[in-house]
Amino acid sequence: MRVITLEADGAATDVAPGERLELRLPENAGTGYQWVLDGPEPPLRVVEETLHPVADRAGGTGEHRFVLHADEPGETTVVARQARSWAPESELRRFRLTVRVR
């Protein structure tokens, strides 16, 4: 499984059908800002979503992880927004990754 981090924002990547990507984005849930995916559109689908908090200190930044499965050939852009769920207009950050399934 290929790991994608915030540093890949704006990039493009190629994957094979059947391959999985794990998107790891830093998140401090205590602030109310959470990562939410817009989509994704086929040929990708989310198969798992988890939050991994920092265990050694309260209020620390953890990781929000999304596991995406490439179903079939095609191309799509994964868009993640970091915002407060009760105030979507409060968007703090946006992440984009173009994925080509070949």
Description:
By secondary structure, the chain is mostly beta strands. Helix content is 0%, strand content 60%. It is built from no helices and 8 strands. It has a 4-stranded mixed β-sheet, with no helix packed on it. It has a 4-stranded mixed β-sheet with strand order 2-8-7-4, with no helix packed on it. Strand 7 (74-84) and strand 8 form a beta hairpin. It is globular and about 40 Å long. The model has no long low-confidence stretch (mean pLDDT 93).
Q: What's the arrangement of secondary structure elements?
A:
Blueprint: E1 2-5, E2 11-15, E3 20-27, E4 33-38, E5 44-52, E6 62-70, E7 74-84, E8 93-101
Parallel strand pairs: 1-3, 2-8
Antiparallel strand pairs: 3-6, 4-7, 5-6, 7-8
Quickly list its features.
single chain, 102 residues, mainly beta, four-stranded mixed sheet, 8 strands
Instruction: Return residue spans where pLDDT drops below 50 for at least 5 consecutive residues.
Output: none
| Backbone shape | globular
Distance between the termini: 16 Å
Major β-sheet profile: 4 strands, mixed
Mean pLDDT: 93
Brief summary of the model shown:
This protein is mainly beta and 102 residues long.
